């Protein structure tokens, strides 16, 4: 039985650039790194960035969705840090009085990621 996500792996091509992006721009704490991997804490979910072991392992990743409290504020702050978004924050689902908002960006190696925010509204 699945109990949650323990780790998400994201392929990269340059460890130094990746550490700078995820640590300095996204603000994720760097747990540790090796010569070909870096591990970050995304509020209890470990994010592994790794150089491909061989050409067969070079591929884009699954989308990683980072939860944020205020999507508009996070969007502005990340844009100020030079992160380029492919869209603007937008409503993707409304279920009763609960809304889910998202916006998407790419890391330096073209991996797609999203910011998401879910909250209750007054009806």
Automatic annotation (TrEMBL):
Superkingdom: Bacteria
Keyword Thylakoid attributed: no
Coiled-coil stretches: none
InterPro entries per UniProt: Glyas_Bleomycin-R_OHBP_Dase (IPR029068), Glyas_Fos-R_dOase_dom (IPR004360), Glyoxalase_1_CS (IPR018146), VOC_core (IPR037523)
Entry keyword set: Metal-binding
Residues of the VOC domain: 4-118
The keyword Transmembrane is annotated on this UniProt entry: no
Identification of the protein by name: VOC family protein
